[in-house]
Recover the amino acids of this structure.
């Protein structure tokens, strides 16, 4: 099973350790711990894209170092290639520009631009699960990928 990690999963671990405020309840944290610890024996593979690194770079300086360190040390973390978010078709005429990928447009309408970029990368890199602690993502559905919190993933395993 290939699991794409949202940036807030990295933040959740850092927050729980005590380097920042806690944004996840105890049950979700315990489920996340089980997922990470169980990944070695179960064949789960974690992945993310450079978007997570870009988001970590926006974290206030006093918290960023631990986020960056943990981001680089997560077991079996694969950095997947970033897929183009446009169709490579150039618009001619006034203003120019390019045509956004239709999937990204659809996801942006449903999830907003920032979350859509992450979900888009997860889908294009053939992840089975988009793992997040963001309820506004998990309350929606997507026919191309499972959008799950750690506690929901544990129930599937």
């Amino acid at each position: 099973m290939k699991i794409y990690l949202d940036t807030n999963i990295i933040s959740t671990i850092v927050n729980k350790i005590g380097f920042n405020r806690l944004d996840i309840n105890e049950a979700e944290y315990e489920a996340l711990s089980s997922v990470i610890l169980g990944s070695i024996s179960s064949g789960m593979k974690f992945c993310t894209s450079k978007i997570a690194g870009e988001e970590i770079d926006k974290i206030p300086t006093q918290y960023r170092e631990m986020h960056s360190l943990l981001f680089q040390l997560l077991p079996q973390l694969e950095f997947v290639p970033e897929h183009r978010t446009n169709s490579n078709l150039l618009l001619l005429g006034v203003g120019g520009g390019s045509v956004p990928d239709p999937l990204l447009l659809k996801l942006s309408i449903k999830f907003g631009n920032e979350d859509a970029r992450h979900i888009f990368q997860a889908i294009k890199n053939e992840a089975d699960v988009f793992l997040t602690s963001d309820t506004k993502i998990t309350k929606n559905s997507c026919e191309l990928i499972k959008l799950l919190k750690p506690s929901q993933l544990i129930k599937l395993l």
Q: What stands out?
A: Strands lie at 2-5, 45-48, 77-79, 86-90, 98-100, 129-131, 146-148. The first strand starts at residue 2 and ends at 5. The first helix runs from residue 7 to 17.
